[in-house]
Amino acid sequence: MSQAEAENLTLAPFAEHYPSLRLSYLGRTRTVAGLFVKEHWVFSGFTRACPACLAGDGSPVQNVHGGPWARTWRLPVVFGCAEHHSLLINQCPSCQQPVHARSASGLLPAPSIAGLHPAACRATPDPDAAACGCRLDTAEPPAMSDHQAALQHRLDALLHAPASTRSAANHTARYFNDLRITSCLIGASWPVAADIVDDDAERELIDEHIRRLRQTMDATRAAGRIVRELEFYDRPPPDAAVGAAILSLAARLADDPGHNESEIRRMLAGMPRSSQTNVWLERYRRGDHCSPALAQTVTAILRPPTQLTPLPRPASFTTD
């Protein structure tokens, strides 16, 4: 293969639009190895997948080998398949292990097992046993809602937009950073934003995800280890349904931060109050990393910071 053909098998071509893939990000220089260890907005340790895509398109070669694995399934902003109108899966329906979980043997789990279909689960929960082998292309994921499908279609278009001008690429990159910022704000201040989630099922998914996340943080503290809360909240959930719920709300806020300033103000007031919070926000606000509209909104809210009054935060959101 040529260098260009090899590069197109990787996520590198998306780095211009998707800043979390860049080796230079938020004023820092990163190595490829460091990016895939510490960058939470890339699923480097596993992948999501669309069973219908893996089943193939009916052509002779795909009837034998199945359909191709999409690179973008490793990006948290891709939670569904627009072609098949379904959410992606992140676990094998049989062994419940993450799909294509990375192991010491390399990027592809169990590469030496002969005769394993490309769409089969390669997980080996028991090191002394054979791979799971369950056909992932037979799984039946839930359908996306209409608003989830519309959002996924928009995000797909941004990821695959032609690199026409530098300004257009910067605009797209800043929007993905806006989604990252607002997603973290949602989690860190939850359930402050619970009352603006229109879909009851999505609200419950977010609530359960944040509850489990805080249980993990509590257990980490109990073990005597330091907990940096924003690092937990800045991790997109592996489950596509939860990811879709959070990103749907994040997009609603990021699409018009000026109009939603009161909601963003409430979330900032409900976040953990620490120097880490301010440093995290400043890192995005300065240096053209987020959109001018969001930067202006955050600036107006944080100046002066003494005006922010922390809100009491219940453990979870409940409805009557």
Overview of the molecule:
The chain is mainly α and 320 residues long. The protein has a domain at 161-307. The protein is 42% helix and 2% strand. It is built from twelve helices and four strands. The protein has helices spanning 3-7, 32-38, 51-55, 60-65, 146-159, 166-189, 200-222, 229-233, 240-254, 261-270, 275-285, 292-302; strands at residues 24-25, 28-29, 80-81, 86-87. Strands 1-2 form a two-stranded antiparallel ribbon. A two-stranded antiparallel ribbon has the order 3-4. A hairpin with a 4-residue loop joins strand 3 and strand 4 (86-87). Helix 6 (166-189) packs across helix 9 (240-254) and helix 7 packs across helix 9. The longest helix has 24 residues, at 166-189. The radius of gyration is 20 Å and the shape is globular. The termini are far apart. The relative contact order is 0.12.
Name the features.
mainly alpha; two-stranded antiparallel sheet; two-stranded antiparallel ribbon; 320 residues; 42% helix
> What are the low-pLDDT stretches, counting only 5+ consecutive residues below 50?
305-311
| Order of SSEs | HEEHHHEEHHHHHHHH
Individual helix count = 12
Estimated structural class: mainly alpha
Helix content: 40-55%
Question: How far apart lie the N and C ends?
Answer: 61 Å
**In one word, what is the shape?**
globular
Overall mean confidence score, pLDDT: 88
Sheet of most strands: 2 strands, antiparallel
Q: What's the number of extended β-strand segments? A: 4
